[in-house]
Each structure stands twice: as C-alpha cells, then as structure tokens.
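Researcher: I'd like a structural prediction for the single chain below. Treat it as a standalone chain; there are no partners to consider.
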Amino acid sequence: MARLARLRFLCAAAASLCVASFAAAARTAAFLPASNRGHRHRPSHHRRSCAPLLAKDGSGGSDAKTNQPDLLRGLESKLDYEGRISSKIIATEDDEDDSDVHPHRCGLATILGAPNQGKSTLLNALLADDLAIATARPQTTRHAILGVLTSENCQICLTDTPGIIGSPAYKLQEGMMDTVKGAARDADVFLVVADVFRITKSDDDDAEAPAEDLGIGEEMLAKLRKPGRPVIVCVNKVDLAAAADGDEGSVYANTPARAVEAIQRCRALLPDAVAILPTCAAEGPNDPGVVALRSMLTANDPGADVGSAIRGLGRPVPGMFANDAPMMSNGEARRLLPLGPPLYGPDFFTDRTDRFCASELIRETLFQSLGKELPYCCEVRVETFDESRRYADEDNGAGGGKKKSMIRIGAVILVERDSQKGIVVGKGGQKIKDVGVDARRRLQEFFGVKIFLDLRVKVDKNWRNNAEKLKKYGYM
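Model: Treating it as a single chain, here is the predicted structure.
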C-alpha cells in the first residue's frame, strides 16, 4: 500500500509538472533539445547549422513578459535532461545593475539600408567571418542571411537583408522587398547602414541630391521613428570620405568633415536613434567603428567596456548619441537587447545550408570575374551536392598520403536570353572556364576540402517574373 501511495503521488506530481510546463510554453518560450540528426559535427570553415533551441510565441501579452523570468526559473529547477541548454536567467532587469552577473540577453538585429551601402560587409565584419557575399554590384544580396553572434552572456541574431528598392521592377524584387519587411517586423534592434556619400552634399553638380530618407523610403523611415525598438545607424565608408576630402591621418582620430555632416543629418532624420556611428566595414572586424558596435551589442558580457570601445572612435562628434550625450554607458548598451535565453546553441552560425553557401560563392565569383559585362538576371542553382566523401580522410585515418576527401558540386547558371549566355560562356568557353577555376578555389577555401565543380549555363526565359519559379528558387 505504501508503494502504491508513493506511485500515485509521483504520478500526480508528474501530471502537475506537465500542466505547468504546457502553461508556461503557452505564455513564453518552450525549451527543446537540439536535434542533430543528419549532421556530422566536424571541424570546417563553415560551422554546421543545428536546429533552433527556442520557439518564439508571438501571442503572449504583457503578463507573459512580466512573469517570464519566474517561469524560466521554475522550469530551470524542474527540468533536467541530457543536451538541454540552461536558460541563464538568474536575475531581473531591476537588480542587474547591482550585480556583477547579469541575466542572459538575446535579440534579433536586422540590418537595413539602400542597395550597395555595405550591409553584407558589416555583417561579415561583426561575425569576423565571410558569411554573406559582398561585391561592388548593387543588390548582390537577394535573400535574408542569418548570422548568429554568441558570446558569454548574450546572443545576437543578425539578419542581412536585400537593399531596399522604392519601386520593384519585377517579381524577383517584389519578393526581396517582402523579405525586408518580414525581417523588419521581427527585429528587436535595427542596424541601419548608410553610405556617407549618399547622405551628404557633394561639390559635384552632377551628383545626386542627399537622400532625405537615408535611401530606405518614407515607409521604413516612419517605422524606425516609432518608439519601442532601438535604432543604431552606421555611417559607412568614412575612410573613402577621408580620402575624397583630402583628410590625412587616422580616420577616427580626426573624423572627416563629410562624416560629421552625415552624422548630423542622420540625427535630424532619426532624432531618437540610440547611436550613430562612423564605420569602415570593409576594414574588417578590427575596424574601430565595428569594434564599438560589437561592444555595444555584447555589453551584457562580464568585463564589457563600451566606453573604451567608443573612445577608439576619437573625439566625440555632436549627434553621435541620443540626447546629445557624449558617451554611452555599459548599462544603456546592455538594454539594447531584451532579456531571454539563447535561441540557438553555442556553435550555431547560420541557418543557411552548405548548398546555399556554394551557390552564393559561385554567384559572387561571377560578379567579380565578369564585372559590368555580367547580366544582373544571372542566378546560380546547385543541382547536385555530393558530400559522401567529404570526410574520407578523417574516416580512414589518412595521414600524410594522398588526400581523398572531396565534395562534388554540379551547378547551373541561369540567364534569360541567348545573348546573355554567350557573355557568360565567352569565346570558346574561356569565360566560364575562368569562372570555374576561381569559384573552385574559393569553395575549397570555404569548405576546407577538394572540390570537383561542374558548371553549366542555361537559358531560363523571364524567370525573374515567374512566380512559380521564384517560389522554387526561394524568393517568394
């Protein structure tokens, strides 16, 4: 009888816990163990994707937000299984300034801007990795690219988006603009990238007038002006402004006059922006502007020093921070991201597949090899991606002998007209051969193994305006 009573007690406790867990899941996030089926965790340049650890529920009200830390603590104390990631919620926002340990923060940061402003370059610099392709051609980015920056006590999910177009010319661009709107809708933080030359006056009479909307359109500008979600503006390419204006010395030690003007114009357009930073994203992850931005986004980490990173930008520029403040404190930067557990595991890098990355690298090679000759309508589709021998050397314990690891990729380059096919193929097939050699080299650097690449060119008439094909290609 005693055993039966104990069994009944345990069953009742388990049922109570299940009900509490389902109630919590309805009002906040549900923790799920990572699913790694189909993925082999091997060292490579491209960190493999894994399943999200958290599903967001957009239906929760203010009560769910208020009680989330308590719910998470309750689950934290009751749920324990192999592979589970801790919520890391150990304090509330009210008492975090009095503690050396801060509750975990996680947020979605959407990168917005007009075409060819340096958005993809900024994403790569923040991640210190070449995830998104970047070329001098406008609208190189056609998809939303997720890159996850995970540090000790916070996680930033950065989304690169296509350049904003006021009037899409065909269905492909319509799909791209829908992608931008979706990314903006989900954002916790906005990172607006604006080319310094686009928002300042020029001595050249033939130059375009400064963009009164940062090149993102009045609709998006109005969205950014609404309170509730912080906005950071990156005035990019200030190194080029310094060279154009003849300013000597360090760009940040003596901020170029054109960059100062750009910051002030951005402040007039977005008076509530938390920060407007000069950046040279093309200089990479160690550029002082990129370092300052990364420091602000990861201010929740122990030992973070936002002030020191900002001082690396040189003398304060009026309008750089909200309310004419000369500096941003760690506490202010910390609150850029909302409280919350990590959405992804610590090794998660992107939700894009190896097949997608291969197609993007080939397209980047096309853009850079053919330059202005290349028709913008080119699309690259990877039809075969055979990685059955990708880890052959590791599986066979190969030492210094002949390397057998290999990935076989078969890709087709789509154009809309026969005349465009001739441009890509070149006389005697020389152009496509050169593209293949360069693309294979880049793919081998990216994947870290030998690449066998088969490239073909195919005419697919009017694919940019064919809704069915655009859905197949992932644009709609």
